[in-house]
Structures are given as C-alpha cells and as structure tokens.
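sry for the spam today, last one i promise. struct tokens for design, 402 residues
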C-alpha cells in the first residue's frame, strides 16, 4: 500500500513541474524507502552527483512487513541522469544524518553530520571519508561532553575544519561572554586527513544561541563563518545575522553583527572579489518568511548593501545558494506555508537582486523543499531536498535549465 502511494505521488509531482524559462529538459528523481528519507546536501562528482542526508534503513520480514527501521546518515551516488549508482548507510548502528558532503580533488568523498547514542541520547559530530566509488569507508565519531551538531566542513592544508554547534556551558558567564548550559555555541574542530582531531575544538559565542551555518576560505586569510546570533535578545532583537573571521586554528580574529531587522537568519554565503554575498531569511518558520540577501564588504564593519527583493504574497524560505555562470547565483528553498510548501528555485545577481523570469516553483500534494543546490558547466541547476506526505518522505533530485 505504501508503494502504491509513492508511485501516485511521483506522477502528480512530475506533472506539477512548471517551466518558467526556456528549459529544454527536466529530470526529477526520488530516492528512499517507505519511511523518512531526506536530502540535505549535494555536490558535483566527475560523472554524476553525490547526495547526502538521512536514509532510513529498513528490515523487512515475510510479506514485506517492516520489522524494524533506523534513520541513519546516508550517502547516494547518482549518474548525470539522476539514476542511483550506489548508496551507503553510515553511522554504524547509531541514528543520525549527514549535513554536508564535499568531493576532494582526487575524487574522494568526505561528509559530516551527527549521530545519537541510543543509550545516553547524547548527540555527537561524526565525519566519514570514502573513495569515489564508495569503498574504503572510514568513520570517526567525536564523543565529547554535551551535545554537538555539525553544519559544514571545508578542506584545509592540514585536513579539514568542521563547523558545528555545542550546548556545553562556557564561563565566565556574563551579559556578553560565555554560554548558558543548553544554549548553542559555535564549534570549530580541526581534524587531519585521517579524521583524527587536532587540539581541542574552539567554542565561540555569547550567552544565548549562536549558530554558524557555513564556512568559507577568506581572502583576508583564515576562514569566514556566517550564521545567526541572539546576542541582543535582551534588547528586543530576536536573531541577527553575523559574520565571524577566524584564523587557521579556529580562533576569533574579528566579528560583525549585522542586525538590520528584528529577526534574521543566515543560511549561506558566497565569497566575492570585494566582499561576501549572504543569503538569509527574515522571520521565523512560524511566520511569513522572506529572502534576505545582502552584500557585506571586505571591511565587515562597513554598512552592507541590502538587496531590494520583491515582496511575495506567500512565505518564501531560502536554504542555500550556489554560483551560476560567471556572475549569477542560484538560490533554493521553499515557497508557501510550512504545512503545504513547494520547492523553490530562483536566480540572483552579484548584488543580490532577483533576475526576472528566472524562477521555478514545483509542487503537488504534501510538502516539498529544496535544501541544497549546485550548477554545472552545462548551465544545469541541480537541487536536492525532500517531498513528504503524512509521516513519509523521499529524497528529491531536480535537474533543469532556466
């Protein structure tokens, strides 16, 4: 019965896709089993795509009856046509998910996410590395005090930097310093090519929640992080965008809180020749949201350039962006209320302004969202996310040209 539902759903979703430009083809693929599967990150491989997220590993008995299931970190390799080549369940026997996947110059695949200990219910960061064909998997779980989550990973000269969060209390706790127990601090962890930790992780933030969502190499040296902070929550602000410069060991160089509205959340960032293009949203998930795109200059304390984005009649939540051609960027997210959202893809220029006519919204019964997006040398846009209905969801891959 479950499979009949998914076949019907796929057909409905496909016929709901609308071309808003001169698309010459659309590829729409679904991956997963009968329960919850979610695609959170995608990257280009030499001969296809690598998708990561949550894959539900299912054990079936007689009559195809589901005896047990576990939501695990997972990796999928597809061809350029979107057809699956292989899939891997990670995390050993612990539930969890993958947040970010990258492909190295030699074709190796590295991903980071989190797993949860089923006995202590503590969540820990994990990193996995494998060959381009999915062989030779090496996994490392970083078992530490408190709960840690991982949002991004970047290759460095010594190995990798993992960007995550920690809810461990940090002192001295004042109005401006430390971290309250249970609140989120930014965590930066250095590991080598063998996935071994280098020194203790660095925690950074203020007493309330501070979350880093993306890390990039900084032309000013070291690395730059973008995210959101509750630094001024006691003054009536909710969340503010911030950017943080760190050195190669993860320690703070300087930061800037950009708070131009009362509630903004940093989602992604691209490095420009003269600054940084930051993608965010205004408003929480329980409110009407809108894209929030600004350009921050190399002098991160200078007034930013705020893009004049059109106001939509429905909520637009954005999740990720990626460079498109030489001077454009493609943005992915969802349109509409959270209970009935559709997949959203649109294009912006280097000043953050929407490009007229370069917009696609696809959807059907249930909820759709795009969580990550890339583009290739043939000007294809490839987005990954999920479609869900009731208590089930499948990973979605959408490939098209504007």
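last one done:
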């Amino acid at each position: 019965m479950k499979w009949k539902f998914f076949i019907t759903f796929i057909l409905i979703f496909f016929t709901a896709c609308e071309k808003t430009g001169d698309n010459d083809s659309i590829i729409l693929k679904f991956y997963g089993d009968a329960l919850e599967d979610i695609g959170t990150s995608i990257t280009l491989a030499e001969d296809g795509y690598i998708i990561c997220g949550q894959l539900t590993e299912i054990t079936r008995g007689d009559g195809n009856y589901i005896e047990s299931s576990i939501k695990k970190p997972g990796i999928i390799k597809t061809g350029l046509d979107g057809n699956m080549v292989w899939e891997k369940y990670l995390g050993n026997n612990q539930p969890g998910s993958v947040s970010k996947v990258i492909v190295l110059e030699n074709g190796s695949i590295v991903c980071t996410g989190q797993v949860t200990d089923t006995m202590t219910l503590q969540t820990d960061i994990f990193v996995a590395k494998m060959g381009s064909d999915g062989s030779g998997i090496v996994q490392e779980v970083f078992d530490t005090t408190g709960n840690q989550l991982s949002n991004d990973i970047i290759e460095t000269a010594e190995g990798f930097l993992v960007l995550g969060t920690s809810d461990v209390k940090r002192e001295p706790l004042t109005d401006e310093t430390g971290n309250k127990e249970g609140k989120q601090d930014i965590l930066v962890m250095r590991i080598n090519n063998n996935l071994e930790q280098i020194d203790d992780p660095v925690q950074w933030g203020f007493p309330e929640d501070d979350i880093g969502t993306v890390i990039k190499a900084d032309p000013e040296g070291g690395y730059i992080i973008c995210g959101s902070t509750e630094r001024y929550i006691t003054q009536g602000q909710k969340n503010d965008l911030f950017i943080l410069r760190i050195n190669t060991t993860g320690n703070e160089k300087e930061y800037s809180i950009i708070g131009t509205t009362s509630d903004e959340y940093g989602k992604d960032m691209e490095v420009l020749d003269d600054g940084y293009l930051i993608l965010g949203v205004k408003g929480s998930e329980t409110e009407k949201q809108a894209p929030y795109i600004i350009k921050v200059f190399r002098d991160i304390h200078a007034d930013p350039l705020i893009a004049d984005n059109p106001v939509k009649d429905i909520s637009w939540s954005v999740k990720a962006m990626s460079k498109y051609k030489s001077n454009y960027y493609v943005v992915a997210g969802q349109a509409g209320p959270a209970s009935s959202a559709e997949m959203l893809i649109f294009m912006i220029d280097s000043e953050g302004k929407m490009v007229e006519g370069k917009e696609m919204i696809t959807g059907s019964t249930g909820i759709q969202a795009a969580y990550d997006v890339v583009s290739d040398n043939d000007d294809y846009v490839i987005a990954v996310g999920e479609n869900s209905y009731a208590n089930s969801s499948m990973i979605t891959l959408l490939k098209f040209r504007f």
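The longest strand covers residues 66-79. ok im logging off now
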